[in-house]
Amino acid sequence: MNCTGFEKLVIEMARGGLTEAAARCEAAAHANTCARCARRLANEQRLSGVVAAIVEQDSQGIAPAAVEQMLLAEFKKQHAASKRGGTWRARAVVGAVAAALIVAVAIGLRRTPEQHTVQMKPPEAHATPPEVPVVAPAGRDVSKPHVRTLRAARRKTSRRPTTEALAPHQVAQREVMTEFIPIVYDPEPIERGQIVRIRLPRSALATFGIPMNEERAEEAIRADVLLGEDGLARAVRFVK
Amino acid sequence: MTELQHLSDDDLLRLTASGDDGAFTALYQRRHPAVYRFALHMSGSPSLAEEVTQEVFMTLLSDGGAYDGNRGPLAAYLYGIARRQVWRRLAQNRAQFSISGPEDDEARTPEYLIAPSEVERDLVRDETVRWLRRAILALPAGYREVVVLCDLHELSYAEAARALGCAVGTVRSRLHRARALLSERMASRKSSSSGCLV
Hints:
Number of domains of chain A: 2
Structural class of chain B: mainly alpha
Low-confidence stretches of chain B: 95-109
Number of helices of chain B: 10
Radius of gyration of chain A: 39 Å
CATH class of the domain at 1-98 in chain B: Mainly Alpha
Largest sheet of chain B: none
Helix content of chain B: over 70%
CATH superfamily of the domain at 1-98 in chain B: RNA polymerase sigma factor, region 2, helix turn helix motif
CATH topology of the domain at 1-98 in chain B: Rna Polymerase Sigma Factor, Chain: A
Order of helices and strands of chain B: HHHHHHHHHH
Shape of chain A: rod-shaped
Oligomer: heterodimer
Structural class of chain A: alpha+beta
Mean pLDDT of chain B: 81
Radius of gyration of chain B: 19 Å
Strand content of chain B: under 5%
Largest interface: A-B, 32 and 42 residues
Helix content of chain A: 40-55%
């Protein structure tokens, strides 16, 4: 081994990291014959000794307890905030549903009852769908709710066959609906009513206890709102 | 707490994310000494080390999702954050922390670093330890951090490379150069001391 080769190994030798016995013996043999490399090894070994003393002195060094206390307080604050955020989100969903229903009600009130008549059975505990389902095309925004009366639907049916003219069992094949879910706990029986197709965030499903995919909570879903003669929303059903 | 101490870093981090303050405490107590000492060894400033420790764990709290266990252990991730924090603070306080050389810097040596030695009888050795602390602080930052990680924190080259985000060969060559500088300075100091004594 020459001085260049020794220089490559000297630090590992001094740090005790030269595990290869043959290389270690070769380097030691070179240090025995070269005064310069022997001094170099001695300096490195001395440095390693002082480094070890520093490691020993500092081994118990930790941050003051105040740092931990501050972090723990911040941790608790963050998690308390995130819990509040979750509650807030739930309230927001309920609020969104309520807002959508209010819009629907407002629109329903603007219409005259004579023009929008759907013969309805009074909604029971789980309101049943109207005898003749009125199906509106998808993609309508809540700002433009699609209100269609049975009479209007019949008029259109007589002119040309469309989706809306399909028999109930045919419609059912195309759209999957939940049953009407009462919105009010003790609904007044209604003789007539109307159905308004609206779009709601998918998260509204959870509000009514229907399982939903959390990852798709922001997507819109169609729903039919059943309005009573007084214009108040009585029940809602979700449409797929 | 005892049960938590047996959990891996990754498990503790998952529990922390779900709001378990016991898991966070266990994780902090396990990992903060290395972070604190790294910042202290890099800066020589206990107050800066406290700030960095706080900042590292705040980052972990707010951005724990950025940690990817497949890319390396949590310890390396924490060192990486600590390193960036130290560099940023040293850059901000360049005037305060610029180190011209170990001999000129005695007045600025923090009290913490001049810890009472358990071998006070060996005054020469104690003085050498204090000198070496200052000499390490005087190294260029790139060399300083490999000495801190590989020698003072006893990380392997691979672990240090993960923490620094560089190749193992880079760590090895920087350490070689840094130690050569330190041992040269130590040798010249020894010879000048000997000259004075004579």
